[in-house]
Design goal:
This protein is α+β, with helices and mostly antiparallel strands. Helices cover 43% and strands 16% of the residues. The chain has a 4-stranded antiparallel β-sheet, with helices on both faces. A 3-stranded antiparallel β-sheet has the order 5-3-7. The protein is globular and about 50 Å long. The mean pLDDT is 94.
Amino acid sequence: RTAGNAIEVAEAVETLHGNGPADLTELCIHLAGNMLWLAEKGELPDCLAMAKATLADGSAFQKLRAMVQRQGGDVSYLDHPEKLPCAPAYAVQAEQDGFVAAMQTEEIGAVAGRERKEDKVDPAAGIRFVKKIGEPVRRGETLALLYTNRPDQVAQASKRYRDAVRISSTPPAERRLILA
């Protein structure tokens, strides 16, 4: 549900503690399970169960913590994600009722931070997706939160975000998280 350096790290830490969004948790379990399977640690169902168990017992988080520590990183940011930089949040509100039907992710990525890869990264900037594809939304309801240190650009960024999100009167077809 996030895009942006610091808020993505915070979401990853939440997920490794078993409190992340369901779709990210499922994706992480499948990716980790498949890596274990590729490393020939067992049959795929067993590897998926092992991956799920590492979230439940906290060992996945401890592994990340150890990796950061070995690389000379400051693990206090993992232990206390509230220390991560966070720009002020501004709500982007829906202009109509309906369902989030599509999102132009490349445009949304530009709204979240850099227009070009050469632009300076603001680790405190980002987007929290309050409404994702398939979810209902009412006019005036928050679609997303923009985290930015550039309040003078909030109106333009909010418009760009709304323009990058298509709202339909009918729910979109259900999408599978993992295709293959």
